[in-house]
Design a protein that fits this description.
The protein contains 19 helices and five strands. By secondary structure, it is of the alpha+beta class. The protein has a domain of 126 residues: Histidine kinase-like ATPase, C-terminal domain (Heat Shock Protein 90, 2-Layer Sandwich). The chain is rod-shaped, with a radius of gyration of 55 Å. About 1% of the residues have low confidence.
């Protein structure tokens, strides 16, 4: 069982490492694309751009990669970084698969955004081309009408008014449900007709679009209505033109629309008659234009730095991963080495324990043999000599014979003190101990035994039993020879893996110092120490001897 511990350790280590990998996979539930989309949804465009850019460098899905490029292009377009927007939108087209049905919508959005970028770049022909490419990728009419509006406005900017008006009419014939698109189409169509013919009475359509936007609370759309109405009144009513220009300025300030704000200030410069007002708005225009240009340049630099930081971070991460991989190789090597060393130590320790056990058994066997030889040499030979003397002598001198017998007794006792073998006996061990102790009971001395039950001896090894039997015998002999006790109590108790034996008598007690102890008491101490136990000699409350013994039981 013990030898299997290294293998158990390896299994536990494998489970731990597997659970660590599982925890890491669980922690990576959300990809950089998911994080980027979340930030984009909540208009945190800097963070969205960062995570989308990080995703495209480690993408695991071509559709999401193309979508990430598209989102990056859209963000840059919104912030005026037209060159960067076009670059990322072209990357989206290169990534998306025109033959994959699941990619079609993303392709349509990408072409639409490219059309918007080209429109803002005053490349109207390219804008129309991209809008035309976008339309086939959409099945529903709603988004197609948005694309058609962009295409019509591009024709308007090219001054191809009839084509633009025709496309606006096509949109209106489809009856768009979206109020914003409806107002935008009506407004743009009216402006296109007015641009084609400055005598065209466009006010009803402008006011209709303005009302739809107000009812729909289309704040950004109101900017276009105020701008078109201001332009419409330029020649016919400058006061109205100035009034709508001021409305446009106020609205654009609220919405923080730089393009509309610049348009409003430009109109205020033109429509104000006061030179002081013109000078004020001219300075305002210059300041706004510089701020606007700085903002656009900052946006371009910001996104460029985002990409540079990511590229630098990616390179550093690759180097870090390489370093970490090397470290893990060392760690795994150390772990494997540690497991091998632990297994070797446990194997060596197991063999060492077996060797110690074998040596102990050999020592016990040798001790038995030695004791047997001494019994034969000392006791048997001594008895034989006495028997021989009794057999052959006609007269026996009592005193010398008693001395010889006493000498033989002392020699046999010395042999018993050295013997640690267990005696085979058919009686239970508690019965043997009971018989041993009661053997010293007579008319002058009463022996009281407490707790000597089979349960007490259940977890005590044969070696411990033999040593304890010799200790108890020595205590009883010592009591009989020296104490003059009338009453003796021997108590046995076990608690929490420890056995306790307490001896008490009402005799004269032990000598004050150890120098007065006999060999038997000294042997008692050494025998208890050999059991990893403790023995304490003292006096009881009546002045007699007290011996407290405790030692650990076997598990």
């Amino acid at each position: 069982m013990k030898s299997s511990c290294p293998f158990l350790f390896i299994i536990i280590l494998s489970i731990f490492m597997s659970s660590s990998c599982f925890s890491q996979r669980k922690a990576d539930k959300y990809t950089d694309y998911d994080r980027g989309y979340n930030y984009w949804y909540y208009d945190n465009f800097d963070s969205a751009f960062y995570y989308f850019n990080r995703y495209v460098n480690n993408a695991d899905d071509t559709l999401k990669k193309g979508s990430a490029y598209k989102f990056m292009g859209e963000i840059q377009w919104q912030f005026g970084d037209l060159y960067g927007a076009e670059e990322n939108l072209v990357n989206a087209l290169r990534t998306l698969d025109t033959n994959n049905e699941n990619h079609r919508v993303e392709l349509g959005y990408t072409y639409t955004l490219l059309g918007n970028v080209k429109y803002n770049s005053i490349e109207y022909d390219k804008a129309i081309e991209y809008y035309d490419k976008a339309i086939p990728y959409f099945k529903g009419k709603d988004y197609i009408m948005e694309i058609m509006n962009g295409k019509a406005t591009s024709f308007q900017k090219k001054k191809v008014y009839n084509t633009a008006i025709s496309i606006y009419d096509s949109i209106l014939s489809l009856k768009p449900a979206d109020a914003g698109l409806l107002a935008r189409t009506i407004d743009n169509k009216a402006k296109t007709k007015w641009l084609r013919d400055t005598g065209y009475y466009a006010l009803p359509e402008f006011w209709q679009a303005l009302k739809i936007r107000r009812d729909d609370k289309n704040i950004l759309g109101l900017n276009a209505s105020y701008a078109h109405l201001s332009e419409y009144y330029t020649k016919s009513n400058r006061d109205s033109a100035l009034w709508y220009a001021e409305k446009l300025y106020s609205q654009a300030t609220t919405t923080k629309s730089f393009d509309d704000l610049l348009d409003a200030v430009d109109k205020l410069v033109s429509f104000n008659n006061s030179s002081e007002a013109k000078d004020h708005w001219h300075k305002r225009y210059k300041k706004l234009n510089d701020s606007f240009q700085l903002s656009r340049d900052t946006s371009k630099i910001r996104f460029a730095l985002r990409r540079y930081d990511l590229e630098k971070s990616t390179a550093e991460n690759k180097e870090l991963k390489r370093s970490v991989s090397n470290q893990w190789v060392w760690i795994y090597s150390l772990i494997i080495g540690a497991v091998i060393v632990i297994a070797g130590i446990m194997f060596w320790n197991d063999k060492r324990k077996k060797r110690i056990k074998q040596d102990s058994e050999n020592a016990i066997r040798n001790s038995k043999l030695k004791t047997s030889q001494k019994v034969h040499d000392v006791v048997a030979n001594g008895l034989y000599g006495i028997m021989n003397e009794l057999e052959h002598k006609t007269t026996i001198d009592k005193e010398p014979l008693i001395n010889k017998i006493e000498d033989l007794y002392e020699k046999s006792r010395n042999i018993s003190h050295e013997d640690t073998s267990s005696h085979n006996n058919d009686k239970s061990y508690d019965a043997q101990i009971h018989e041993l102790l009661n053997a010293f009971s007579n008319d002058d001395t009463s022996i009281f035994i407490v707790g000597n039950q089979p349960e007490f001896w259940s977890n005590i090894s044969p070696v411990q039993k033999q040593e304890l039997q010799l200790v108890l015998k020595e205590l009883m002999v010592n009591m009989k020879k020296h104490s003059g006790a009338k009453n003796v109590v021997v108590q046995f108790k076990k608690q929490d893996g420890t056995a306790y034996i307490h001896y008490k008598d009402d005799g004269v007690g032990f000598p004050a110092t150890e120098t007065g102890w006999g060999k038997g008491l000294k042997n008692t101490v050494s025998r208890i120490n050999s059991l990893n136990g403790k023995v304490t000699f003292g006096k009881n409350d009546k002045g007699g001897a007290s011996v407290a013994i405790d030692f650990p039981t076997q598990s």
